[in-house]
């Protein structure tokens, strides 16, 4: 969080709650003149990673609900959260990607190139 976000949060923010990832959710204390609704925002614990926002808080942030949905807890069929690795060295790269050697297996007979007649 930068100094501007910290100052805005201290002066105008009201803490609504936190989630399992220790992200904190805020709402403006008062409605701005001419605004239709109060601003809502999240202060991430650690590096900003939007995929760590649980569905109940996502719905609240996007004004789908007026209050955060109740946390339903962990179900046995739920997988633990995995961080989005796109743009990092740990991101998935298919065979043939430049960083994976750049050589791809030749196409099989499942593709026929179009040629004009």
- For the biggest β-sheet, the strand order reads 1-2-3
Give the CA-based shape.
Answer: elongated
- Helical fraction equals 10-25%
Low-confidence stretches: none
Mean pLDDT: 87
The secondary-structure element order is: HEEEH
Strand content: 5-15%
For the termini, the CA-CA separation is 60 Å
Region (Disordered): 97-117
GO cellular component, one term: respiratory chain complex I
Protein name: NADH:ubiquinone oxidoreductase subunit NDUFA12
Pfam family, one: NDUFA12
What's a concise summary of this model?
The chain has two helices and three strands; from the N terminus they run H-E-E-E-H. The protein is α+β, with helices and mostly antiparallel strands. The chain has a domain of 59 residues.
How would you sum up this structure, described in words?
The chain is α+β, with helices and mostly antiparallel strands. Helix content is 15%, strand content 13%. The chain has a domain at 3-61. It is built from two helices and three strands; from the N terminus they run H-E-E-E-H. Strands 1-2-3 form a three-stranded antiparallel β-sheet. It is elongated, with a radius of gyration of 22 Å. It starts with a helix and ends in a 56-residue tail after the last helix. Residues 97-117 are annotated as: Disordered. InterPro entries: NDUFA12. It comes from Rhodopila globiformis.
List the SSEs and their pairings.
Elements: H1 3-12, E1 13-18, E2 24-28, E3 40-43, H2 55-61
Antiparallel strand pairs: 1-2, 2-3
Characteristics:
117 residues, three-stranded antiparallel β-sheet, ubiquinone, NDUFA12, NADH:ubiquinone oxidoreductase subunit NDUFA12
